[in-house]
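JOB MANIFEST
job_type = single_chain_structure
chain_count = 1
residues = 423
[input]
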Amino acid sequence: MIEVSNAMVTLSNSDNAFTGSDAQISIVTQSTVTIVGDDDTISAADIVNMTVTGGNNTISASQGYVTLNGPAGQWDSLAGSTLEVFVEAGLNVTLNGGIVAFTLGDNCLVVTAGDNTSFQGSDDIIFLSEAYVGGDSVTGSHDRVFVATASLLEIFGSDNVIHFAATAAATVAGTNQRLLGAGFDISSTGADFFIGGNGESGAPDLGDVSNSTVRIGGNSNISMSGADDTLRVLGDSAVAFDGTGTSAHFGIGDKVNLTGSGATGALDTLTGAHFDVSVNTSTNAEIDALGVDAVVGDHVVLALARAQNVITAGNWDTISILWGHSDQIALGQDDVINYNGAGSVLDVGNAVGAATVNNFGADPSGIVDLLNGVGGFATAQDAYGALTGDGAGGLKLELGIYGSIDFTNTTASQLSAANFKIG
């Protein structure tokens, strides 16, 4: 064993232990060595197994094993690649390099610059940067991870908090992960995570997510695509999702933009209260909510439940009121309304083409509101009196150049002037 300070030392298997500080240490290839001291500069050839105890050491190595020990709070600096590194609990390490595998004790702090670095440990703090190609990975629980601009990450485990800079990206797995930042991208299959808090008007966080449970914080801007997800959104957020079989719950003040997988595709279900939603063209959706303001695109299949929802329909939509009361639907052109509500209002303010309303006569409190002189009727009684048979057991109301409304499965005895309003 060599014990000396302020020296230049070469270690090999035949002379493999050193104790001292402020030394310049070279390690011969394929050696196994032990170094105890502070402020040493250690340079290793390839395929070296070293144990370093102390602090403020500067280590350069590749193709080998490095074990770092010492009092908690000590810093060591490591440069190299193709290494396996074992870090005792409570130590601090900086790394400049890549293709490094870290096994961390609890409460370590690691700052890295490089690609293809992996970390395994819990209750650690890890700063990642410059992982632009292969990306870094973290596996553990209760870790706090900081991902620099444009860096790539895979995160596994549970209860980790990940802070992303803009344009960073991650693949997320595990449970109860917490993703924070603005303008980053994620992908996930079968994960459970929280995302958001980036500001409703801030840079959007982007996600390609399937079979996952996602909690979106208030005051967030999220754009997401995927299938069979469950979303829960707090209030005052902007959320856009391109969904297939997605179930989402929204809060007060949320602004939602929904694109589905086609009118015959998997059903996307929206629940909650007092949010705004745009349902884009050719979507199959259900709004089971209270007080929603929805603007619907063309060729949409929409089911509606609960109460006091305001729907502005597009053209060639099929809208079914499954149950509930006091909804309001503004008709587009050639829409079909399947009516099973109570006290709902159908607004006719523009050309409706060949509109169809099924089962309207079952609700004596339903109202057709003829706005802007549509049909030219002076009174509600005039509109009721203008009803004629549709030739198929129902009734038809002709609106001249504005089109007509066919009330199928409805007889004259089921309606009265009270079902019409001149707005």
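[summary]
The chain is about 0% helix and 55% strand.
The longest helix spans residues 380-385.
exit_status = 0
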